[in-house]
Amino acid sequence: MLKNVLANWSNIILSVVSVFFLYPFCVQVLGEEQYGIWLLISSITGYFALLQLGVPLANVRFISKYYARGEMEKVNEVVSSNFLFFSISGAVVFICGIGIAFLIDVVFQVPPEFRRVARLATIIVSLNVALSFSFEVFEGLLHGLQKFVYFNMVKNLLLLVRVVLTFVVLKYENGMLVLGELLMGVTLLQAAFFYIFVRFKHPEIRIRKKYFNFDVFKMVAGYSFYVLLFQFASKISFNTSSMVVGSVISVQAIVFFTIANNFIIYFMQLVSGVSNAIMPRVSQFDALNKKSGLQDIYLKYSRLTAFIVVPVCFGLFIFGGDFIALWMGERYREVSGNILSVLTLSSLFFLVQRGVAFPILMGTSHLRFPTFLMAGTALLNLLLSLWWGSVYGLYGVAWGMTVPNFVNTVGLIWYTCRVLKVPVRDYLFRGVLIPLSAGIFFSIPGLLVHRAISIDSYLKFSGMIFVSVVVYLICCFAFYMDTEGRKEVFRKFGLSFVS
């Protein structure tokens, strides 16, 4: 499973690096207003994914389950039935996108000179989402079969192509339409690669009319209802900020907020690299009734994920403003840096549960409580963001997102421990407090270096982070890793272990 996690992380890390280079470039070429509109369009069309009704994740659940049992007839029924569903949903998406295109300047504060191009860009992006719907079944297959290495190899290659083309073409064309056309080209190429892989590596899996089974789809859809509601709530919690800022503040302010929010979104995707790899394994354990294996996954991967989340969140909270100033310019340091600090507070605790607890509950079909919990906190998020955003500006939106995440974290820990019969006190100590205490070994050396030198270059910033990470890893190895873990590390490097 570690290989699959690393494969998922490779794409997320590459995505973060691409944003690092593309974001300031696009702001410079398109301007804050036009790029703010592009971010707004991306946020709006991101909600189209909800029309998949949660079926993609249900696909992973049932494909991995039936494939583990060798029931290929069932696998083909799930794949074929959902391909028809995705194709119909894609057509609905495109129709909705056309309607939204002619309303975007009515609902949001789009400057007159950008209204026409905003409408066209919305139509193009909507068509891209519609096409990706039809091809979603191939992604679900690769996830369900745990082919994460090939999946991410293709995505990484096409991401690099898109980044290079953006730098080359955007300089000359200078418009949102180019970004939309590049997205569509990548979607078509990616679908072709995935189809070829499934066709030749797994010829026993076929999409055929004879496999269309409405009863199978109803079974998947019954499971999907809670996934859909959870995804809708997640969208409100983490991807509505652009619309909130665009409606109560301005489209220009979207850029300031998105700079900070992108750190959290991409970090959450990094954590999702763990959950995507956990999900098929959980489904297999649940199908084979291995309860102890599920407990081990929750405790082990919560601890592992927490040891990853802690230094990153400490780094974002303490040094985020410095990096933003280097990356985007001094103009963004204070506002975007402070927003990032606020958003990081809840992420320190929430992301572990989002990355580990939810895929376990989803893989074991315990979705009712976490789904309604997420829906309730998402509604609270939206109300607080609109209220506090209209009163306190961008900082109010940030706190409106942060407070509900704390509530969500408490609820997920309590419920998951109850389902898996893990003592809450034991989990809090092993999975939360111990990793959190390790954060001191990252923050202290970083603060000492920060006081000694002025962070005015990427080289100095990288040096400060390097020192903090090295000290953190050494202390984690010395104080937090058990004897067996140390032995394994020494074996990996061909060394003999001395206790």
Automatic annotation (TrEMBL):
Pfam families reported in the protein's UniProt record: Polysacc_synt_3 (PF13440)
Keyword Hydrolase belongs to the record: no
Annotated transmembrane regions: 12-31, 37-62, 83-104, 116-138, 150-170, 176-198, 219-238, 244-267, 304-327, 339-362, 369-388, 394-415, 427-449, 461-481
Membrane topology: Multi-pass membrane protein
UniProt KW keywords: Cell membrane, Membrane, Transmembrane, Transmembrane helix
Compartmental location: Cell membrane
Claim: Translocase is one of the keywords in the record: no
Principal cellular location given in the protein's record: membrane
UniProt superkingdom: Bacteria
Protein's name in the database: Polysaccharide biosynthesis protein
Gene: wzx
